[in-house]
């Protein structure tokens, strides 16, 4: 009988651990300032590793990751966000046309690999983000978009 109660206790402990510690947690959200300091190659490597982790995660974990990322970016001050945008723009301009094309194709492939529900959620998140921009910021963003 003592073995049975021990097994019961271990089983309950295992259930508690499985409930409180998911087997596969969503990847950690990178620090935006640290990310901006990485070279484009380092960013690409880290992005691929994050993508592999997100591919293995459940849809709920992917959604939680995106929510934490959005929250982390929203906690930055406007000056910090502006500085990060400037650094990102400078790095993008420093890339060769081939590197830019490769990055655009990788992004396109990631979006095409999403489920229709994930694409709809991404679109809703982008619309939500755009709704928070001032009219001047939206106009500036619209000017930067390529014509179709």
Question: Can you characterise this structure?
Answer:
This protein is an all-alpha fold and about 150 residues long. It is built from 8 helices and no strands. The protein has helices at about 1-20, 30-35, 40-55, 60-75, 80-95, 95-115, 115-130, 135-145. The relative contact order is 0.07. The model is unreliable at about 1-25 (pLDDT under 50).
**Computed CA radius of gyration, to the nearest angstrom:** 21 Å
Tally of strands: 0
Low-confidence stretches: 1-23
Tell me the strand percentage band.
under 5%
User: What percentage of residues falls in helices of 4 or more residues?
Assistant: over 70%
Shape: globular
Span between termini: 74 Å
**Tally of contiguous helical segments:** 8
Report the average pLDDT across residues.
77
Give, in order, the helices and strands.
HHHHHHHH
Keywords:
148 residues; 0% strand; disordered N terminus
Quick recap:
The protein is mostly helical and 148 residues long. The protein has helices spanning 2-20, 32-37, 40-56, 59-74, 78-94, 97-113, 116-131, 135-144. The longest helix has 19 residues, at 2-20.
List the helices and strands and how they pair.
Blueprint: H1 2-20, H2 32-37, H3 40-56, H4 59-74, H5 78-94, H6 97-113, H7 116-131, H8 135-144
């Amino acid at each position: 009988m003592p073995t049975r109660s021990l097994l019961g206790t271990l089983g309950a402990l295992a259930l508690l651990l499985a409930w409180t510690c998911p087997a596969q947690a969503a990847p950690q959200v990178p620090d935006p300032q640290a990310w901006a300091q990485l070279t484009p190659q380092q960013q690409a490597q880290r992005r691929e590793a994050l993508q592999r982790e997100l591919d293995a995660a459940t849809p709920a974990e992917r959604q939680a990751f995106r929510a934490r990322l959005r929250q982390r970016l929203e906690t930055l001050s406007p000056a910090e966000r502006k500085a990060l945008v400037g650094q990102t723009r400078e790095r993008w301009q420093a890339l060769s046309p081939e590197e830019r094309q490769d990055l655009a194709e990788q992004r396109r492939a990631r979006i095409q690999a999403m489920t229709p529900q994930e694409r709809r959620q991404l679109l809703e998140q982008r619309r939500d983000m755009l709704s928070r921009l001032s009219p001047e910021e939206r106009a500036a963003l619209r000017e930067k978009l390529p014509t179709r």
